[in-house]
Write a structure and sequence with these properties.
The chain has about 350 residues and is mainly α. It has one domain (about 5-245, about 280-345). About 75% of the residues lie in helices and about 0% in strands. It contains 13 helices and no strands. It has helices at about 5-40, 45-70, 85-120, 135-140, 145-165, 175-190, 195-215, 215-240, 245-255, 260-270, 270-300, 315-320, 325-345. Mean pLDDT is about 85; it is low at about 125-130.
Length: about 350
């Protein structure tokens, strides 16, 4: 296929995702603005305000987003089954990668926030720029809503939009760039540094699995499991242990540089932290299992890409897939948003 035509198609995909994501965000921010302007009392009810934000997202915005993507024809991906053992291994590997990347992201946020405080006299972790508001979902959201919106609907929508619909339209141009763009665009769309790093990582892992199997149900299941570990399992453990205030106390300590409050809180809630410690031990075992599996898979060279006639040749893949107007505009918009939130948050 003509390289210029392939580059044009990558650009078209980028423009479709620019249009879809901006329209989606525009509708959502419009709904939030209208609610705050005309129905301010709704924002005082956490459950009701959650419903007001989530219903338009999943039942209006995302279907419109999908309709925009469908303007570009899809390609066929060979389908293969994935056994239960491989699904379990994939969960351990992606979950361990996600948590490790999350720790790295938090470390970068701490460093950036401290530098910002020293240079600009700003408060560490102030605002939304770091993405640490995500931690509030662990304890602040109703468990039923966590199950519906975070564990079920979000994985289905995100895997369709950023895995199946995206990869189906560029798969024939080369698996490597399909995986890269799926993970990168998924991470950037989250709009903050913390989620960008781990969402790009797990998004790339899911993209690889989808290219190997051609069946989106496997990545949806894995996505659901990972989301449930944070929102239901860890969040539930924090509530069970009565440690809902710990996140806020920890953030205040980092802001002030006074960690005495954390030590006092731990001493007053030692039983709760013992309960949390049991779960952390289990999570640690999952992480260790995932790391071992990564080492084994890499050592045995079990990861491979399938190449097809007509795909972009090596050496021209990045310039063709990324260095085109549509994809570049998408990257600039959402990378700019992440930087803006870091600076102003």
């Amino acid at each position: 296929m003509d390289p210029k035509l392939i580059k044009k198609n990558y650009s078209k995909l980028g423009w479709l995702y620019v249009a879809g994501t901006l329209l989606t965000n525009g509708i959502l921010y419009g709904v939030i603005f209208a609610v705050k302007k005309f129905f301010p009392s709704v924002t005082e009810n956490t459950d009701l305000y959650t419903i007001v934000q989530m219903i338009p997202r999943f039942f209006i915005c995302y279907p419109i987003f999908a309709a925009i993507i469908f303007l570009m024809p899809k390609m066929q991906i060979p389908q293969k089954k994935m056994g239960g053992g491989k699904v379990a291994a994939a969960f351990c590997m992606t979950y361990s990668a996600a948590l490790i990347c999350n720790v790295v992201a938090l470390g970068l946020i701490v460093i950036f926030s401290i530098l910002k405080k020293l240079l600009f006299k700003g408060a560490v972790f102030q605002g939304m720029g770091s993405g640490l508001e995500v931690a509030d979902l662990l304890t602040g959201l109703n468990p039923v809503f966590s199950l519906i919106f975070i564990v079920i609907l979000a994985p289905v929508a995100e895997e369709l939009l950023f895995r199946k619909f995206l990869i189906d339209r560029i798969y024939g141009y080369g698996e490597a760039m399909a995986i890269l763009l799926s993970g990168l665009m998924f991470g950037l769309y989250h709009g903050n540094l913390q989620q960008f790093i781990y969402a790009t990582t797990i998004g790339s892992c899911f993209a690889y699995i989808y290219t190997r199997t051609g069946r989106i149900r496997y990545t949806i299941i894995l996505h659901m499991l990972i989301n449930s570990m944070g929102s239901l399992v860890l969040g539930g453990a924090i509530r069970l242990a009565g440690l809902q205030e710990y996140m806020q106390i920890a953030m205040r300590a980092v802001q002030s540089g006074n960690f005495g409050e954390i030590l006092g809180y731990v001493e007053d809630n030692i039983e709760g932290f013992a309960i949390l410690g049991i779960l952390e031990f289990v999570i640690g075992c999952l992480i260790l299992t995932g790391i071992i599996l990564w080492i084994v898979y890499l050592a045995k060279k079990k990861f491979h890409l399938v190449h097809y006639i007509g795909e972009v040749p090596k050496g021209k893949r990045f310039s063709t897939a990324v260095l085109n107007p549509g994809i570049l505009v998408f990257i600039i918009i959402y990378a700019g948003l992440i930087i803006f939130r870091l600076i102003t948050g």
